[in-house]
Amino acid sequence: MYSKNTQKLVEIHISEAKKHALQLFAFTSAVFPAEWSSSWNEVVTFSLLEFSFHARKVNELCEFKNEAFPSINQLMVKISENDPGNWETNYHFALNAFIHIKSFIIGQAHADHRVIFPSSSANLQTTYVKIETDKHPEKTISICGLVFCF
Question: What domain of life does the native source organism fall in (predicted)?
């Protein structure tokens, strides 16, 4: 089993990852007006980076490296137009991408099925992040799928 110190570290990382996973789930489930995009993306980015760090530490400390996790793109929003493609399916690879991140773009889908802000230029729902790393070409990661896998 784990030493007392390792056990405490695991508990801290699980607690922090859960906190950010819940935030990300809330943000990726909500519809927001396009005019809020920059503020919205700032909050999502911070939570996503924090979540991925803590979730990866949980995997490392609990030695989950060789564990088989479900595909992370099973629970993503269906994108009917302008699908960014090149979706990452592996949970471990997705978390590693955040460690080796070189550039990223937060992506939204138009939530035309849930028009909550009729006077906005668009009703959006944050759905993915496109990440390029120092080791691999750009991949698209479902944010909701990533946190659900955790």
Answer: Bacteria
- Cβ partners under 8 Å of residue 69, min gap 6: 90, 91, 92, 149
CB-based contacts of 89, cutoff 8 Å, min separation 6? 71, 72, 73
DSSP state of 121: S
Placement of tokens 């939570």 in the chain: 47
Which residues, 6 or more positions from 54, have their beta carbon under 8 angstroms from its beta carbon? 13, 14, 16, 17, 20
Tally the residues of the chain: 150
Confidence of residue 124 (pLDDT cuts 50, 70, 90): very high
Tell me: pLDDT of 134 over 70: yes
Q: List the one residue out of 44, 51, 59, 45 whose CA is nearest residue 19.
A: 51
